[in-house]
Design a protein that fits this description.
four-stranded mixed sheet, 7 helices, Aminopeptidase, 26% helix, 2 domains, alpha+beta, Glutaredoxin, seven-stranded mixed sheet
Length: 248
């Protein structure tokens, strides 16, 4: 199968396979346009469907990491009928090839001990030779694939290692890196207002804010009374269930 690299030149006409709608696609594309000059790569199959990899030099990643010299994989996603054909390995191999060409120390990516939504599959990472480099108090792990023995492992910054905020009530941090937040965050804000659930929404709109965020996941992180609850994007019903309210 062929693959397409999304660039500043073709992003206007090419689809990005992680978006659900044109509006989401537009928001994500605007975010991507600001990252290409920082070394971001969005590489996808030429077929319609979720089959792509997105990666960037870790110094420019929108995550609170200490991983200079590594390539950080934002997302590796193959789903539906495209699974089971070796495409994820082909995408990963392209990332490895480019990282080695740039003389990077290796790759790093977010995962967990057991499979969780919106994170890389730990079984797949283990199969590919990745190891756990660091772990946050919330159970989110930083995995890495070093290219040379003895390479210093990457790690989380302290703010991500011990995720917490000082505000009471619900606090939601999110960025435009994931197009699903464009759809769900306004809905959560609206339902919180309707049911009088205290919710503070913090938009992470710069790399500096992302690299100093109070959670290892900057796409979406939900806190309650200062404690981290989840990185998984919530629907209105799921959010209200967390809040102890019911949808009428």
């Amino acid at each position: 199968m062929g693959y397409i690299r999304i660039t500043e030149e073709n992003i206007g006409k090419e689809h990005i396979c992680c978006a659900m709608s044109n509006n989401q696609s537009a928001q994500k594309k605007e975010w991507l346009k600001g990252r290409f000059k920082e070394g971001l790569v969005f590489y996808r199959s030429e077929l319609r469907g979720k089959c792509f990899i997105e990666y960037i030099p870790a110094e420019n990643a929108w995550q609170p990491l200490e991983a200079d010299g590594y390539m950080h994989i934002n997302c590796l996603w193959v789903s539906g009928s495209l699974k089971g054909h070796g495409y994820s390995s082909e995408l990963l191999n392209e990332c490895i090839r480019e990282a080695k060409a740039q003389e990077r120390k290796g790759l790093c990516i977010l995962s967990s001990a057991k499979k969780k939504g919106f994170l890389a599959d730990p079984k797949y990472l283990t199969y590919k030779g990745f190891q756990v480099a660091d772990e946050s108090d919330c159970g989110i792990q930083l995995w890495y694939l070093p290219f040379e023995a003895g390479a210093e492992p990457p790690k989380f910054k302290e703010c991500a290692k011990h995720p917490q905020v000082s505000d009471s009530g619900f606090v939601l941090y999110y960025s435009d890196q994931c197009p699903f937040t464009y759809y769900w965050v306004p809905r959560l804000s609206a339902v919180a207002e309707e049911y009088h659930v205290p919710l503070k929404v913090v938009h992470i709109d710069t790399r500096e804010k992302a690299q100093n965020a109070p959670s290892p996941v900057t796409n979406f992180s939900l806190f309650r009374d200062g404690k981290f609850i989840t990185h998984e994007i919530q629907s209105e019903k799921k959010f209200l269930a967390l809040a102890g309210s019911k949808v009428q």
